[in-house]
C-alpha cells in the first residue's frame, strides 16, 4: 500500500486527539496527525527554535501515548517544512542553576528520549535544518533518521559548560563512531549531513524535495511488517545495546566528576552567557 504522506495541514494540537477525558492545557507545541497506520509528530515552536522545553516535551510524550493507544505502526517525528532549525536542543532557560544535575533521570529531555526508545513502533526522525545538543541525541535515539542536505548536527555541552550524562554518552557512543563522537563533544561544532551519514548519525541523506516521499514510503513499508515482531526486536535492541557492565564505583566516579562541573562557575557562566546573548568567558573553575 503506497502511503501518501500527510502534510502538516492534517495535523492538529495534541489535545484535540485526546478523548474527552483529556483535561490538559491547550496544546500546540507539538502537532499530531495520528491516523493509523502512520502518525506524524510535528515540532511546532519555531519562535523558540523548537527548544525542548518541559512544555514541548510534555506534549511530545503525550502524543506518543496517543499513538500507542491508536496502535500506530510507525511514527514520523519532524519539524515544519523548510525550517532552518529542526530543534535547538534542551531549553537552556530551564537548565537548573541551583546545584541540581541538569540531565538527571527525570529531566524532561531524558523523559522524551525514553519515550521514543520505549515506544513499541519505530520512530523515524525526518530532519531539515540544524539540530543542537539534546535534540541531536533525540534524533540519534530515534530508530531511523532521514535527513535533507540542509541538516547539521551539533553536540553542545562544551558550548554551555554542561556535564553530559552517562546514559546519554553511552547512547550516542552506541550509534556513532567514537572519533566523531569525540570531535562533536570537544568542538561543539555542527557536522554536515554528509558527515552525519558517514558517521551513522543518520540512515539516509536525500534531496530536500524527496525527503517527505522517501520518509513516508519507508514509514509505510514498516506498517506492512508484523508489528509484534518489530516491537520485540526494537525492545531487544534497546535492552542489549544498553547492557554495559559498569561498577557502582565507576558510576559514582562519573557522577562525582559531573557534580564538580554542574557546581562550577563555568556551568553558571555558560547559561548566563547564552541568556545574555554573548560569548561565555570560561575560567576553568
Ligand atoms: C532556549 C532558545 C534555545 C534553547 N533554549 O535564533 O547537549 S547539552 O548538554 O548542551 C544540552 C543541555 C542542550 O541541549 O543544551 C541546548 C544546546 N543548544 C544550543 O546550544 C543552541 C542554542 N541556540 C542557538 O545557538 C541559536 O538559537 C540557533 C543557532 C539554534 C538559532 O539561531 P537563530 O539566530 O535562528 P535565535 O538565537 O535568535 O533564537 C530565537 C529564540 O529562540 C531562543 C532564543 O533565546 C531566542 O529567544 P528570544 O527571541 O526570546 O531572544 N532559543 C534558541 N535556542 N536551546 N531558548
What does this structure look like?
The chain is of the alpha/beta class and 285 residues long. It has one domain: 2-enoyl-CoA Hydratase, Chain A, domain 1 (Alpha-Beta Complex), CATH 3.90.226. Helices cover 44% and strands 14% of the residues. The chain contains 12 helices and 11 strands. Strands 1-2-3-4-6-8-11 form a 7-stranded mixed β-sheet, with helices on both faces. Helix 2 (54-69) links the parallel strand 3 (38-43) and strand 4. The protein starts with 11 loop residues before the first strand and ends in a 10-residue tail after the last helix. The relative contact order is 0.13. Residues 1-9 and 19-25 have low confidence and may be disordered. The structure holds ligand LCV. Ligand LCV is lined by residues 48-49, 51, 85, 88-93, 95, 132-134, 156-157, 159-160, 162, 164.
Order of helices and strands: EHEEHEEHEEHEEHHHEHEHHHH
Rg calc? 19 Å
Strand count: 11
- CATH class wording: Alpha Beta
Q: How is the CATH topology named?
A: 2-enoyl-CoA Hydratase, Chain A, domain 1
The CATH level-2 architecture is identified as Alpha-Beta Complex
Q: pLDDT under 50 segments (min length 5)?
A: 1-9, 19-25
| Helix percentage | 40-55%
Number of domains: 1
Average of the residue pLDDT scores: 92
Amino acid at each position: 500500500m503506497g502511503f501518501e504522506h500527510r502534510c502538516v495541514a492534517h495535523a492538529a494540537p495534541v489535545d484535540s486527539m485526546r478523548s474527552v477525558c483529556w483535561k490538559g492545557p491547550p496544546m500546540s507545541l507539538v502537532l499530531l496527525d495520528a491516523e493509523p497506520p502512520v502518525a506524524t509528530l510535528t515540532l511546532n515552536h519555531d519562535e523558540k527554535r523548537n527548544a525542548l522545553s518541559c512544555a514541548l516535551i510534555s506534549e511530545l510524550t503525550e502524543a506518543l501515548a496517543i499513538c500507542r493507544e491508536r496502535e500506530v505502526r510507525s511514527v514520523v517525528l519532524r519539524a515544519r517544512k523548510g525550517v532552518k532549525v529542526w530543534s535547538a536542543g534542551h531549553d537552556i532557560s530551564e537548565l537548573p542553576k541551583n546545584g541540581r544535575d541538569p540531565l538527571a533521570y527525570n529531566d524532561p529531555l531524558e523523559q522524551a528520549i525514553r519515550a521514543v526508545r520505549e515506544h513499541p513502533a519505530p520512530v523515524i526522525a525526518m530532519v531539515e535544518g540544524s539540530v543542537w545538543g539534546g535534540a541531536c541525541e533525540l534524533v540519534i535515539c530515534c530508530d531511523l533518521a532521514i535527513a535533507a542536505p540542509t541538516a547539521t548536527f551539533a553536540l553542545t555541552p562544551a558550548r554551555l559548560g554542561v556535564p553530559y550524562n552517562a546514559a546519554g554518552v553511552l547512547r550516542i557512543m552506541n550509534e556513532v563512531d567514537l572519533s566523531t563522537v569525540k570531535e562533536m563533544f570537544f568542538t561543539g561544532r555542527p557536522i554536515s549531513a554528509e558527515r552525519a551519514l558517514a558517521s551513522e548519525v543518520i540512515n539516509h541523506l536525500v534531496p530536500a524535495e524527496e525527503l517527505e516521499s522517501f520518509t513516508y514510503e519507508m514509514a509505510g513499508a514498516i506498517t506492512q511488517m508484523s508489528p509484534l515482531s518489530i516491537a520485540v526486536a526494537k525492545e531487544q535492541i534497546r535492552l542489549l545495546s544498553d547492557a554495559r557492565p559498569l561498577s557502582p564505583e565507576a558510576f559514582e566516579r562519573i557522577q562525582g566528576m559531573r557534580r564538580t562541573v554542574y557546581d562550577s562557575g563555568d556551568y553558571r557562566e555558560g547559561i548566563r552567557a547564552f541568556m545574555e546573548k554573548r560569548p561565555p568567558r570560561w575560567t576553568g573553575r
